[in-house]
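ugh ok fine here u go
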Amino acid sequence: MKKGLRIVLVLMLIVSLVAVVGCSNQSPAADEAKVLKVGSDIAYAPFEYYDKDQKATGFDIELLTAIAEDLGYTVDFESAPFDGLITSVQQGKYDCIISAMTIKEDRAKSVLFSDPYFKAVQYIAFNKGENFEKIADLAGQKIGVQLNTTGQYAVEDAGMNPEKFKFLPDALNALLIGGVDVVVADNQPVLVFIENNPNANIECVVADTEDEFYGIAMKLGNTELAEGINTTLAKFKENGKYAEIYSKWFKGEVPTF
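structure:
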């Protein structure tokens, strides 16, 4: 009787140890697989910025969090300068990057873009009393842009040499104090800056550039993640989730594209 009991107890102990070893070998990998590491320049309201509690928020942050949740991931956002994001995702530091990044042919040679998730235009921002209507009007002006953005490229393509800032708010603050005469940048961040600085006397007009479309960027070859993101993004556009998030952060009609 006692011998049989000892045998049963030994067998139970062996089974328990196997279970513990199995869990210790599998759980960390499983947990790690459920975390999506995301890079973003979190200084670009209303797309990505830190709120008063130093929590990442904004349209991009909320949209990607919802997409990741639909795919079974939690999200770990890390802030980094915009001009280094593509290199970081190429090196595997991030699974993907979302940072109001325009899908461009030259960028698409370096990263794999998702389907477009946002439609944008370039704005020319300047002090009231000035009169600029198109990029060509900026000749001879001191122009501020954010480094490695389509605003920079639009100005340089017109044969001008802008002053490049690492962060867009720095360029717009330079406009406030007279460090630059004009800033070329994406429309929504300019509008947010003007709204947050009502006494700044800044005006803006739509630049004569083509419409732009933002994409989520991944390492070349990461088709599994890209397909998952595209499927969920299409679903969100169909079921109204995209419109819900868009309307929370922006005014006006939700664009179709």
